[in-house]
Amino acid sequence: MDDAKYYKRTIVKEQIYSHTLDQERSLRIFLPPGYEELNSYPVIYCQDGEEFFNFGRIATHATKMILDEGMEPFVIVGVDVNLPQRTEEYAPDGQRYEAYRHFFAHEMLPYVEENYAVRNTAAERILAGDSLGGTVSLHLVLDHPELFTKVISLSGAFLPSTQKRLQLESDLSHLHMYMLIGTEEEAVQTDRGTFDFLALNRTCQTLLEERNARLHYTEKPGRHLWGFWQNEIPEALAFFYRDDTAL
Predict the structure, then answer these.
(1) How confident is the model over 182-212, as pLDDT tens digits?
(2) Domain range holding 86?
(3) Rounded to the nearest 5°, which phi and psi values hold at 165?
(4) What is the DSSP code (8-state) at residue 56?
(5) pTM of the model
(6) What is the CATH number of the domain that holds 60?
(7) CB 186 within 8 A of CB 196
(8) Distance CA 9, CA 234 (A)
(9) Which of 37, 90, 134, 200 would bridge 156 by S-S if both were Cys, CB 3.0 to 4.6 A apart?
């Protein structure tokens, strides 16, 4: 089979300056086959943008699903992270979390919507993240339900601070979430210690279901690595883009 057509794609790289973060951030933007500025497209915003594109191969997955499986074309925005500051920006108790949240919702999002043909309603936006990227994506929905309602979480780092936040919520019926966790993630080493991510995700699942979130929760053999997540991205995309009731 000739896979060359899956690699003929348009990925635009942008640099935007964030006044809140006081630094530039890189964006990489996948424009689907047949992209036209006169149309409008659903959009996925990925934390750890470089990793989602390079290790998750999300643009290749998307191209294949659009060309071969008739999936509605969509735009992907990868938001790169400053790795030394990643935990402080993505963790809800991090020193730079509030600045990152403001950048994402009030600087990055308007920039993309002013310059690309993406749809601007919560129902047409998806947030995606791995590990702490899943954490910050969930918290963005909790903080800005008027902007975001959909999350793809790949082995989210749902530590006690996130669990406490969920306990404060009474109704999360607006939240639509795809959760993946590996059954071999019982001792994940992080810069904050070693955690049982499997147990943390199971607790988070219970908290979300008790609050009526629309949840697709799945456990599969796998470790806390892109080698595991990469192959699961098509299923996550299909959950939202093949299931009309998720919109």
Answers:
(1) 999 999 999 889 999 999 999 999 999 999 9
(2) 4-246
(3) -65, -45
(4) S
(5) 0.94
(6) 3.40.50.1820
(7) yes
(8) 17
(9) 134
